[in-house]
């Protein structure tokens, strides 16, 4: 089976009501910093949408809230597969 990667998408921000667009099934995901292209996270998983939703990218410490530090500017892409083993 030939699989292809999706286009890069900006990682959604919950405070803006944005949603993840990803397969609800097995596959791969890659998350990177948009500005540098440096890898943030990569995995083969049973449910791509769920795995992306559970990444701790929106978590901030109490001190960062007071300093008004922005959440990291991330983007992601996905690749659906038939099984996790195929990924």
Walkthrough of the structure:
Helix content is 15%, strand content 26%. It has 87 residues and is of the alpha+beta class. The mean pLDDT is 83.
Helix-strand blueprint:
Elements: E1 9-10, E2 27-33, E3 39-45, H1 48-54, H2 62-67, E4 74-80
Antiparallel strand pairs: 1-4, 2-3, 2-4
Q: Work out the helicity level.
A: 10-25%
**Count of discrete alpha- or pi-helical segments spanning 4 or more residues:** 2
Shape, per Cα inertia axes: globular
Termini gap? 11 Å
The radius of gyration computed from the alpha-carbon positions, rounded to a whole number of angstroms, is 14 Å
Quick one: biggest sheet?
4 strands, antiparallel
What order do the helices and strands follow?
A: EEEHHE
According to DSSP, the number of beta strands is 4
What is the typical, i.e. mean, pLDDT? 83
Structural class determined from secondary elements: alpha+beta
Q: For the largest sheet, list the strands in their spatial order.
A: 1-4-2-3
Strand content: 25-35%
Q: Which stretches are poorly predicted, pLDDT < 50 over at least 5 residues?
A: none
